Amino acid sequence: MKACQTLNNYFALLALAVFLPRLGMGQGNLVVNGGFDADAVGWTLTNGAFYGSEKDAPNGLVYLGSQNPSPTTPNPTSSQLINSLIPGQTYNVSGDFQKIIDWSGGTITGLSFGVAIDGIFLFEATPADFHWHNFNFSYTATSSNTVLSLASQINGTLVSYGIDNIALYAVPEPSAELLFGFGLILLLGFGRWKTKAVQ
Amino acid sequence: MNIFRNLIGCTFTIGGMIAWLSLLHAQETPFQSQSINDIDAILQAIEATTPLPAESATNGSNFYSAQHSPTSEEPWPPLPGDVLGLDVWPLGDGIFLLDDRDLDYSALSGGRMQSMSMDPNDPGDGDTNGYAPNSLPAFTPTTNDLWLQIIGKTNTTAYLVIHPPWNVTNGIWGLYFTTNLTIPNDKWTWLLRNALGQINLVVTNLPTPLGFFMLGPPSAIRPGFDQNLFIGVDDKSTGPVGLPFTVNFFGSSNSTIYVNENGNVTFRGPFDADNWGGLSFTPNLSLGDMAAYTELDIIAPFWADVDTRPVGSGLVTYGTNTVDRHAAFGVSWINVGYYVDDQADHADKTNSFQVILIDRPDRASGDYDIEFNYSQIQWETGDFSFSGGSDGLGGYSARVGFASTNSVNNSSFEIIGSGTNGTLLDTNLATGLIYTNFNNSVPGRYDFQYHSGAPIALP
């Protein structure tokens, strides 16, 4: 009987090993160094984006901006290649952004901050104030790799931003969650029943 | 017996020493030296006496004019602590202080002065300079005082040497002049400012008779206005602060004002990073554009990325006082540092400046002055990456002026050199803020007179 109990435990572990990845759970934050706590390692910074600290983010942030830009200045961008995605799986992308300077003095308006997946902006905004704000959106992976990029001064605007706490997590699907949870309860219940039966 | 002999020996020995010391004392010669130490000692002795009465202080100037009449044998008012020096003219056989050419005074012991009503060109006293010899007691020399020496003069030219304290080798001082010390609160006229480390000064075109010279702080900054302390913060503002009088700023009536750390004050709201982000510390816009963007009315003696957090930086103070008996509100940024990304050293360069709003109902109802005062400008830009500055220089440098969006014309004004690299610094002898002025003769002071909410004249 002890062998049977052990077998059940093995089943439970096997279920976790098989189903958790399918649910996207257990992968954690797929973004490397999204908090910029010490540097911007893992990110590619282009068109004037740079790592910085201080000024409301003492643990570090990435500035998306360049000095004295014009509407034709390429967008300062911070990007990262995300691996280990599961095609068909839904992911949640989130992070913090703060308007730092509007170089136009408010004369050029439009959506000035954007977050893109494989070059397609899925989130665009221009906050009214200069406080930190959160962005949050979902997308479904179509391949195992994708490029996550955050850019400022988009759409010809001249607003620079700071970004911090970037994250990408898999979103558990409700039906799968229910099925997984039900199965897990069954397995555990069967295990306890077997144990009592043996005693 | 031996003990008795020893006692006698000791007595003779001690007696000999006393006699030798007495001889030394008796041989102490009358004071005739022209050495720095001797003169310094005289000044020290004068300073050791009682403080100068407060009412003799020149109002709001940091300088004190001595009240006395040029009669014989009267106590000379001692120097207050913040008078940095006075003129000293060593002659062949005496020390003369505070020479006015017609009435000369020689120092006596105990800080007393004796008038020497002699013509310096009168050879009748047997002295080549026309002055009688004077004996002075010796004093312990010191080199801790700042003093000014007249090494020569003609009818209209004086040759001066600054003797700085031993620990101030690169001081900057203002040289002031007055022809009359007998009038209380008589103002000292600024003559010139020495360059960094300069000790030899030549003053020409002096009126005759010559008057009194005095070294003083080079500051145009007025004392006071420090009842409130804006504790070391970065890019912050106070809440609305009450004004002692209503200010009509380009048609907008204001009874409160916001003090912003980054070198400016605003009406209608704070100008800080919480509300305006990097613009509050990166003057990339003109004052007019800034006002249009923020819809704030701004008075900016030095809009730049001030950082008062580090040790070594002064703090922002503000409060009320009077200026020439007029109610006033002022904000002072004294020895403030600038922002550095890595916090390595925010205060390796510091600036000292001030803005004062002065009620002037004596001119017309509702009139007031806006006064910008500067005594030290060593940096022009914070080192925040967007600023483009490095070590406090370059990039988007400070802007000086005022702007309003609530008038018909969206009025704004910036002084020449505002926002231009290098022009406002002490190192620029031609356009540096501490050397230039407007509407007055004090270097480093800009006085904008407002009538009906607008400046009467602009530089």
User: In this structure, how is the largest beta sheet of chain A organized?
Assistant: 5 strands, antiparallel
State the largest interface. Answer: A-B, 23 and 26 residues
Shape of chain A: elongated
Strand content of chain A: 35-45%
Counted by DSSP, the helix tally of chain B is 4
How helix-rich are the residues of chain A, as a percent range? Answer: 10-25%
- Helix fraction of chain B, binned, reads 10-25%
- Termini separation of chain A comes to 10 Å
Q: Count the helices of chain A. How many? A: 2
Secondary structure elements and their pairing?
The complex is a heterodimer of chains A (199) and B (459).
Chain A: H1 2-23, E1 44-46, E2 50-54, E3 57-64, E4 77-82, E5 90-102, E6 113-117, E7 120-125, E8 132-140, E9 146-151, E10 159-170, H2 174-198
Antiparallel strand pairs in A: 1-4, 2-3, 3-10, 4-9, 5-8, 5-10, 6-7, 6-9
Chain B: H1 2-26, H2 36-47, E1 74-75, E2 87-90, E3 95-97, E4 104-108, E5 112-116, E6 147-153, E7 158-163, E8 174-178, E9 189-193, E10 200-203, E11 212-216, E12 228-230, E13 237-249, E14 252-260, E15 264-267, H3 273-276, H4 287-294, E16 297-303, E17 306-307, E18 316-323, E19 326-338, E20 351-359, E21 368-377, E22 399-403, E23 412-414, E24 445-451, E25 454-455
Structure description:
- The complex is a heterodimer of chains A (199) and B (459).
- With 199 residues, chain A is of the alpha+beta class.
- In chain A, 24% of the residues lie in helices and 37% in strands.
- Chain A contains two helices and ten strands; from the N terminus they run H-E-E-E-E-E-E-E-E-E-E-H.
- Chain A has helices at residues 2-23, 174-198, and strands spanning 44-46, 50-54, 57-64, 77-82, 90-102, 113-117, 120-125, 132-140, 146-151, 159-170.
- Chain A has a five-stranded antiparallel sheet with strand order 1-4-9-6-7, with no helix packed on it.
- In chain A, strand 6 and strand 7 form a beta hairpin.
- In chain A, helix 1 packs antiparallel against helix 2.
- The relative contact order of chain A is 0.24.
- Mean pLDDT of chain A is 82; it is low at 20-24.
- Chain B is mainly beta and 459 residues long.
- Chain B has helices spanning 2-26, 36-47, 273-276, 287-294, and strands spanning 74-75, 87-90, 95-97, 104-108, 112-116, 147-153, 158-163, 174-178, 189-193, 200-203, 212-216, 228-230, 237-249, 252-260, 264-267, 297-303, 306-307, 316-323, 326-338, 351-359, 368-377, 399-403, 412-414, 445-451, 454-455.
- In chain B, the strands form four sheets. In chain B, strands 1-5-4-3-2-6-7-10 form an eight-stranded mixed sheet.
- Chain B has two domains: 36-216, no CATH class; 228-455, no CATH class.
- Chain B is built from four helices and 25 strands.
- In chain B, a hairpin with a 3-residue loop joins strand 4 (104-108) and strand 5.
- The radius of gyration of chain B is 27 Å and the shape is globular.
- The chains are: A alpha+beta (199), B mainly beta (459).
- The A-B interface holds A 50, 52-56, 63, 65, 67-68, 98-103, 105-107, 129-131, 160 and B 234-235, 273-279, 282, 284-285, 289-290, 292-293, 339, 341-343, 384-388, 395.
